[in-house]
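Journal club prep, notes for RB
We'll compare a predicted complex against what the paper describes. Inputs for the P71 case:
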Amino acid sequence: MEQRKRSWAEPYKMKVVELIHMTTREEREAALKEAGYNTFLLKSKDVYIDLLTDSGTSAMSDRQWAGMMTGDEAYAGSENFYHLEAAVQKYYGYKYLVPTHQGRAAEHIISQLLIKQGDVVPGNMYFTTTRLHQELAGGTFVDVIIDEAHDPDSTHPFKGNVDLNKLQAVIDKYGASKIPYVALATAVNMAGGQPVSMQNLRELRELTAKHGIKVIHDMTRVAENAYFIKKREAGYADKPIGEIVLEICSYTDGATMSAKKDALVNIGGFLALNDWALFEKARNMVVVYEGLHTYGGMAGRDMEAVAIGITESVEENHIRARVEQVIYLGEKLIAMGVPVVHPIGGHGVFLNAKQILPHLTQDQFPAQALAAELYLDSGVRSMERGIVSAGRNKEGKNNYPKLELVRLTIPRRVYTQAHMDVVAESVQEVYENRSKITGLKMVYEPEYLRFFQARFDVL
Ligand code: P71
């Protein structure tokens, strides 16, 4: 007998709501111009549905808010630090915790500690802040993700996987002594939120162990990765998400975490390590750049919210609703014929701007132009993930990434299915009028992470 479809629904109900603003097209035209056609520079009050990022934009639970009231704001030895340390040990299996105010601060510390001038750092696709910290420490990032990750149409189930042949070639070329660690991200952001398989992680561990190379895990979205393993990898269908997360972490030597994503908080992060000597050095550094080693730039109440958020992030109902909401939007757009990155990832739907705007060259910033047009149509804010984000290489030349994307990033527990419908309809409208979209020119370019503050004008 055929099984009837059973729907999922949000595993929470609303207790407090935040009213959002609607604007007219004229108001949006003025706001966009003032923002230099960069969605990062829009004021939030001018945005209707904010899909800029899933970072720090989650709705916290009543349990997290209650936890905030138990903030122990002692300068040293806050109770909340020990709660967070216990959560990291229990849910992720890492031994030692260095709290930081957010993910990039942990990246700064680990990069400075492990990377020497002239080193190479292989990784499964770059992330903007991660690569910058590697470069500032004297290293060069080398991409070793599988080729499929650079192909928006490939439906490989684990497009985040490390290509072990590519990694072996990097080891052969430079020698293990020049490779401080492999930067391994789960649910690879720039590839479209694409997961790494457990099989690949096991093989990566084996290869790196043979050469004495560490694996440092960017675990910002590890629970989303675990959900895909559960759904797609043989042998994991009946395993609890928490167990899958623990197994993932067990193949790595340490981790950087932006708790603003998976861990459902508005601010926070950490570096987690298994090696005592390295931990001691990191703990020494955190007091210089972040704060004492028992708060690292977070208030006690923030650490409590992270500790509780971690426990909620691995709840089956939570992670299912979270990822399936993203997939709901993605499938709706696919049904409308809109070119997106396949398969739909864990934290957002990525529009394929190269394919949508074939009349623009990459130098005319197609993804930036598409994000601007979407905002104009409906007040939906998205993020460019293409040539602007990719920045310049060490010689000062523009990087030309294969992926030229607009990210519709879904905050956790914030928007409803009706919001997703409104977003899809706006994307469809923009898609149907795509031939009228013109390119942009960059009129201001900051030195670091240019996408945040760059300004554009119409061509
Ligand atoms: C995202 C962000 C936030 C962001 C950062 C830089 C440019 C645009 C937006 C942050 C991440 C991330 C991964 C995989 C480390 C960080 C830095 N993502 N690794 O996707 O996704 O964490 O923001 O807490 O410093 O919008 P941090």
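Talking point for the session: The two ends are 59 Å apart (CA to CA).
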